[in-house]
């Protein structure tokens, strides 16, 4: 996380009162994505939040604003324990913004790709249960995530939390010569479903496929259809036509993962079945794991990160919350929908 500077892009953007967005006091910048900047902030009552501030050029487009309003309203309806809730928003401000609950933990991408490596089967089972619960809550609000990936899963001592659902779809409306500004598809190539690759109608089963891909990454540190080193189109072909590489996936979850990665959306398990097959009734309850679900080294890391966050009481101290897992925290726009 960066300390606040005198202006955009290192600090407070033009048009925003120095040090504040709405009623939120800025502490530092978490990251930047396709839709705008993400800031760590505190409410007047002391709640720590993540505030996404939309880029000015997007805010100037009425078609974007209209979709942004709709997606914020949809995201507000998402309940449950397993997502970062939308707490506040001003979609009519000169520069629109949305505030979500801040999750004080690194992304799954940071954990697996940098800090620790592949997770043990116990952790993968709890991860699967938490993500399935989160997707149930998201789908109940009429939203399909479409972009479930390791950088959109934050890891806490209690369990995983899903961010970036719904609002990123507002970018679909931003066109340039008939082509969407962010590309023809919403999703990240390595974690897309075959129907996304083909441009077919997307249903909630799309998120089940993405869930399977995330579980493979968590268990092995690899993507089930390989990386994009050979080109995005080759990767998309493998997703649409070839079988996943499940080498290294623990035997106890391999069949479930394989079923989630079926090419035919109708052949994939529903989320209730995923929960049953992960033994969720015995592993998670009330938004938290019943027993410790992470290796002890990761638990210690998360504890140190939480302490640093508590020490971040004003902008001058903002850097203190930094290194423990803030890479990937650009996604901390949460339901605010950080794209990319």
How would you characterize the overall build of this protein?
- The protein is α+β, with helices and mostly antiparallel strands.
- The protein folds into 2 domains: 117 residues, Phosphorylase Kinase, domain 1 (2-Layer Sandwich); 175 residues, Transferase(Phosphotransferase) domain 1 (Transferase(Phosphotransferase), domain 1), CATH 1.10.510.
- 34% of the residues lie in helices and 14% in strands.
- Helix 4 runs antiparallel to helix 6.
Q: Would you spell out the secondary-structure blueprint of this structure?
A:
Elements: E1 20-21, E2 24-32, E3 36-42, E4 48-54, H1 56-59, H2 62-76, E5 86-90, E6 97-101, H3 108-115, H4 121-140, E7 153-155, E8 160-162, E9 175-176, E10 179-180, H5 194-198, H6 205-220, H7 232-241, H8 251-260, H9 271-277, H10 280-283, E11 284-285, E12 288-289, H11 296-310
Antiparallel strand pairs: 1-2, 2-3, 3-4, 4-6, 5-6, 7-8, 9-10, 11-12
Helix pairs in contact: 4-6, 4-9, 6-8
The value of Rg in angstroms is 19 Å
- Which architecture of the largest domain would the CATH scheme give at its second level? Orthogonal Bundle
Characterize the quaternary organization of these chains.
single chain
Estimated structural class = alpha+beta
Specify the helix fraction band: 25-40%
Low-confidence stretches: 175-184, 315-340
Walk across the major sheet and give the strand order. 1-2-3-4-6-5
Distance from first to last alpha carbon: 18 Å
Shape: globular
Query: What's the number of helices?
Result: 11
Total strand segments: 12
Q: Give the amount of beta strand, in percent.
A: 5-15%
Main sheet: strands, sense, barrel? 6 strands, antiparallel
SSE string: EEEEHHEEHHEEEEHHHHHHEEH
CATH class of the largest domain: Mainly Alpha
Number of domains: 2
The average pLDDT score comes to 83
CATH superfamily of the largest domain: Transferase(Phosphotransferase) domain 1
Q: According to CATH, what is the topology of the largest domain?
A: Transferase(Phosphotransferase), domain 1
């Amino acid at each position: 996380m960066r300390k606040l500077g005198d202006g955009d892009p290192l600090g407070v953007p033009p048009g925003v009162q120095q040090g504040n967005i709405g009623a939120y006091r800025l502490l530092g910048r978490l990251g930047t994505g396709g839709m705008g900047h993400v800031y760590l902030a505190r409410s007047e009552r002391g709640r720590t939040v993540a505030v996404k501030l939309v880029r000015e050029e997007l805010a100037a487009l009425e078609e974007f604003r209209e979709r942004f309003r709709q997606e914020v309203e949809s995201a507000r309806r998402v309940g449950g324990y397993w997502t970062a809730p939308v707490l506040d928003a001003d979609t009519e401000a000169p520069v629109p913004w949305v505030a979500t609950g801040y999750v004080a933990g690194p992304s799954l991408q940071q954990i697996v790709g940098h800090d620790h490596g592949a997770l043990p089967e116990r952790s993968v089972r709890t991860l699967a249960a938490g993500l399935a619960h989160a997707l149930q809550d998201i789908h109940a609000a009429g939203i399909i995530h479409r972009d479930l990936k390791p950088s959109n899963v934050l890891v806490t001592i209690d369990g995983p939390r899903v961010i970036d659902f719904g609002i990123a779809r507002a970018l679909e409306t931003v066109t340039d010569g008939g082509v969407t500004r962010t590309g023809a598809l919403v999703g990240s190539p390595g974690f897309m479903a075959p129907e996304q690759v083909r441009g077919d109608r997307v249903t909630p089963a799309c998120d089940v496929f993405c869930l399977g891909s995330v579980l493979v990454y968590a268990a092995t540190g690899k993507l089930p259809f390989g990386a994009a080193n050979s080109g995005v189109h080759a990767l998309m072909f493998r997703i649409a036509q070839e079988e996943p590489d499940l080498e290294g996936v623990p035997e106890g979850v391999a069949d479930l993962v394989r079923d989630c990665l079926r090419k035919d959306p109708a052949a994939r398990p529903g989320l209730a079945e995923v929960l049953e097959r992960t033994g969720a009734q015995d592993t998670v309850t009330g938004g938290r794991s019943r027993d410790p679900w992470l290796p002890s080294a990761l638990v210690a890391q998360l504890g140190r990160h939480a302490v640093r966050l508590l020490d971040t009481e004003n902008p001058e101290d903002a850097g203190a919350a930094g290194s423990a897992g803030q890479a990937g925290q650009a996604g901390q726009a949460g339901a605010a929908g950080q794209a990319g």
